[in-house]
Structures are given as structure tokens and as C-alpha cells.
């Protein structure tokens, strides 16, 4: 099967990992993978089916290039919960709603099968499909959880906890859901109680609070590495990952935490906010300290007892195992009945694109630029 796989290869963080997970497993299963970079897309000529891997740009591009081919859309996280977190960070609610509808409504109306990041977001997606009138059952319109895969592509050797200062790692984007204020409070409390140091990998790139955190935590015991190609040296020096979620957002209940599995693969302990399905599942067997308050986070960081072996976790999140629903679908990819609103959505979006293109063309003409210049001159006069 020739699969047009739409994603963001080489991107930092989750987006690149999700694409590589799908690419590697599909290729190993014997499929001919035709990569489509959503940042500079092509039409995937020759592909029998189109599959997205990732959420925003991959979703939009996959719908645009699918044509009449069977289409699998990957929604790793609830897009509307993500949007709520953006608005809570100060995003313009009207613009966020417009962008969300533009990207995801056509996908919900058109796709023939879906993957989500977990079982919770599977059910939120079923509700969203129902609002569009897609009342087909699971055999006709499959919706499958495909959780984050165990990060076998990261060569992060396990190691014994270092002797000496408590080395705390923060890793990944300071996302809209990431509570940098609570994390700073916890770290400062820990530093007041014991000899502790902090390493920060990643950081900026989303509308979070990275800059304010960096100003608050500036000092000799906090190292800001930024985004690095090879994080192994930093992981090797650390003992425990800390990640905490903001209150008042739906995202932790519908999303997941790539940084948690990566830290476990590297042999670190993990202290994380309870709530995400992945975190709560791992906490049941003691692989993660799931905390609900800053005081619980401080206590968990100071408890330096090693976590249990991670071999069961690696088996549970094996890359091929979690992608079995897509592999089975590719044995017989069929079209599902689209929503009744599909044609109207397509027509409206096409009209919007034409209007935006025409407006851009008008603004690029010499007459428009001359008119703007004359208007400015009159304003100065």
C-alpha cells in the first residue's frame, strides 16, 4: 500500500516524534511511505491512501490533498481543549474559534477513520462527530486511541541516580497548559530545603510563560539549554523530571505527556500532575509520582527512592503495538459516509481562500501601495 503520510518530519518535540513513529512502523509493515511535510506540502501523487500524523498543519494539509482517497486523520489531543488553553493564555477567542473551525471541521466532516491520543479524547471526538451528524457506528467510522509510543528512537541510556545535588529536569515546550508559576514555586521550595539544581531543555515556541519563568529562575543553579539536537548529555546528568499542569484547562484531561515517557526511557524518576490519562495509568504501578498540589510535588521530588523497572511500560507502549488499529485499517481502507455538511464546508472554505487570495493580490499592486502612501501623507498634513 502506498501511504501519503502527512506530518512535520524533523520538527522539535511531539510533532516530529509522532511523524517518525508512524513512518517507522508503516515502513516496517511493508507499506510504501510517501512523506508529505505539512510545512511545505505536496499532493502525494501515487498514494493510495492519505494518513496524517500530528494535529494542526498535518490535519489541514491531509484533508486538502486527500481528494477521493481514503483518509485517516490523527488527532493526538482534543483540538477544542487545546483551543481553550490558548484562550486562557490571552488568545483572541474569536480568532481562535475561527482557526479551530477552519482546520478541524472539514476533517471531522470528511475523514474515513481517526486516531486519538487516548481513550478520553476518543469519546470527546465521538461527541464532536455527532454534532456534525456523523452517526455512523465504530465499524463504519473507526475512532481508535493511539497513545504516545515508547521513545525507542531516543538513545538515552539508563543510569543510576547521580550522587550529590538533586538534579531536576524540565523538558519540552512551556505549553499553554504548563504551569510555570507552580513549577517555579516548587523548585524554589525544594532549593530552600536541599542542595538542588535545575536543567531546562526546550522552552520557548508556544504562547506559554517561558520568558517570565527564565527571569524568575535566573541564577547559578538553573541552566537553560534551549532546544538542542542531542539531549543525551543533559538527561544523563539529571535524576527526576518535573511537569505540572495549569488549573482551569481541559487539556490535561484529554491530552498526554511525551516528556514523561522520554524521561522514563532515560531512567529518570518522574513527578507530574495527576489528570492526563498517561500519567494516571503510569502512577498506578508506581512509575510516576502523580501529584495534585505543589506540596505533594515538593515531597515527591525530595523522595529519592528509585522508580520500578520500566520494561512493562516499554511493552505497553510499544510503537508497533499501539499502531495496530491503523495497520489493520490499511488492510482494507474504505470510505465512510461524510457528514451532510461536507459540501457546504468545502464550498465556504474555498470561497474564503479565493477572497484571501484576491485581497492579497490587490494589496500587492502598485495602485494599492500608492493609495496607502497618499493616505499617510494626508494624515501627516
Give a verbal description of the structure.
There is one protein chain. The N and C termini lie far apart (67 Å). The chain is an alpha/beta fold. It has a six-stranded parallel sheet with strand order 2-1-3-4-5-6, with helices on both faces. It has helices at 14-28, 56-66, 79-88, 93-110, 119-131, 180-193, 210-217, 232-237, 251-254, 258-265, 277-284, 294-302, 311-316, 319-322, 324-331, 342-363, 366-380, and strands at 2-7, 32-37, 49-52, 71-75, 113-116, 143-145, 166-173, 196-203, 222-226, 240-243, 269-273, 289-291.
Q: Identify low-pLDDT runs.
A: none
Based on helices, strands and strand pairing, what is the structural class?
Answer: alpha/beta
Q: Please outline the major beta sheet.
A: 6 strands, parallel
Alpha plus pi helix count: 17
The strands making up the biggest β-sheet line up spatially as: 2-1-3-4-5-6
H/E element string? Answer: EHEEHEHHEHEEHEHEHEHHEHEHHHHHH
**Ends: how far apart?**
67 Å
Approximate strand percentage: 15-25%
Shape: globular
**How much is the average pLDDT?**
90
Rg calc: 23 Å
Q: Tell me how many strands there are.
A: 12
Amino acid at each position: 500500500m502506498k501511504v501519503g503520510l502527512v506530518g512535520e518530519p524533523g520538527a522539535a518535540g511531539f510533532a516530529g516524534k509522532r511523524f517518525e513513529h508512524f513512518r517507522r512502523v508503516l515502513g516496517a509493515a511493508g507499506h510504501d511511505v510517501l512523506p508529505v511535510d505539512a510545512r511545505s506540502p505536496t499532493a502525494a501523487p501515487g498514494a493510495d491512501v492519505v494518513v496524517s500524523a500530528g494535529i494542526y498543519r498535518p490535519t489541514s494539509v491531509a484533508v486538502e490533498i486527500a481528494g477521493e482517497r481514503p483518509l485517516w486523520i490523527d488527532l493526538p489531543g482534543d483540538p477544542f481543549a487545546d483551543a481553550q488553553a490558548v484562550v486562557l493564555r490571552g488568545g483572541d477567542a474569536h480568532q481562535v474559534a475561527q482557526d479551530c473551525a477552519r482546520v478541524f471541521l472539514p476533517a471531522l466532516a470528511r475523514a474515513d477513520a481517526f486516531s486519538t491520543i487516548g481513550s478520553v479524547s476518543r469519546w470527546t471526538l465521538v461527541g464532536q462527530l455527532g454534532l456534525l451528524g456523523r452517526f455512523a457506528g465504530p465499524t463504519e467510522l473507526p475512532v481508535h486511541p493511539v497513545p504516545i509510543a515508547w521513545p525507542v528512537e531516543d538513545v538515552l541510556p539508563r543510569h543510576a541516580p547521580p550522587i550529590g545535588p538533586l538534579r531536576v529536569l524540565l523538558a519540552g515546550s512551556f505549553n499553554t497548559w504548563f504551569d510555570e508559576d507552580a513549577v517555579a514555586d516548587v523548585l524554589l521550595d525544594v532549593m530552600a530545603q536541599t542542595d538542588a539544581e535545575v536543567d531546562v531543555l526546550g522552552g520557548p515556541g508556544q504562547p506559554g510563560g517561558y520568558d517570565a519563568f527564565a527571569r524568575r529562575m535566573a541564577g547559578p543553579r538553573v541552566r537553560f539549554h534551549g532546544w538542542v539536537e542531542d539531549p543525551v548529555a543533559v538527561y544523563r546528568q539529571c535524576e527526576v523530571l518535573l511537569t505540572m499542569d495549569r488549573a482551569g484547562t481541559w487539556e490535561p484531561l484529554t491530552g498526554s505527556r511525551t516528556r514523561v515517557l522520554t524521561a522514563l526511557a532515560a531512567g529518570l524518576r518522574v513527578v507530574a500532575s495527576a489528570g492526563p490519562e498517561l500519567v494516571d495509568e503510569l502512577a498506578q504501578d508506581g512509575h510516576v509520582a502523580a501529584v495534585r498540589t505543589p506540596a505533594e510535588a515538593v515531597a515527591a521530588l525530595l523522595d529519592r527512592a528509585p522508580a520500578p523497572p520500566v520494561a512493562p511500560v516499554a511493552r505497553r507502549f510499544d510503537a508497533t503495538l499501539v499502531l495496530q488499529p491503523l495497520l489493520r485499517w490499511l488492510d482494507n481502507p474504505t470510505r465512510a459516509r461524510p457528514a451532510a455538511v461536507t459540501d457546504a464546508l468545502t464550498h465556504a472554505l474555498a470561497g474564503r481562500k479565493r477572497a484571501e487570495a484576491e485581497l492579497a493580490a490587490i494589496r500587492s499592486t502598485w495602485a494599492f501601495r500608492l493609495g496607502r502612501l497618499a493616505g499617510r501623507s494626508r494624515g501627516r498634513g
